[in-house]
Amino acid sequence: MRSLNMMTLAHPIFSFAVAIIIALTSCATGQKPEIPTVNHVELDSYFGLWYEIRRIENRFQDNEPSQGDGPCFNTTAEYSALPKGKLGVKNSCYRKSGLEVAQANAKSVLGSNNSKLKVNFTGISLLEWLGIGNGDYWIIALGEKNTENLYSWVVVGSPGLDFGWILSRTPVLTESGIEKALSAAESVGYDRELFKSFQR
Fold this sequence. Notes:
Distance between the termini: 8 Å
Shape: globular
Helix content: 10-25%
Oligomer: single chain
Structural class: alpha+beta
Strand content: 25-35%
Number of strands: 9
Largest sheet: 8 strands, antiparallel, barrel
């Protein structure tokens, strides 16, 4: 990978804008029938670093912060345990201008057995407590656990099928793994052709 100047866009204005986009989309699609998720997610097997294999294009990764920046590529997501049952989320990607990082807090939806998360990028405790800026992050399918007892891949979506990601513990996922993930997404109503790779 070529050398890139690093910059951080995790300041409140960026985070708040991302969260509002997610919240507005969630509100607009809230009336659609709910899609199924996995029955249970063991968080200890979910925590750690994930590599984005494919995604459905979305505004906060594909719109350019500055002209010429291009879409996010080589995206990673890292999940960790926080006090009071919360999860920490760190999303990182590269653009032509350098590294972009966004931090968030997440919590499990009551009764979902950790298969549905509310993710908040605002960085403002009051808004998070009020649920303002929460985005739906639903775990649709999980791959088998690896030798470290970590889920090997995951399909993440949203109830309105507006967003979708295939993530893997390794930068490259086998063709059979990608096919399993796409089939799982398709089974709940996604168009598999919308999932695209942004790896370099």
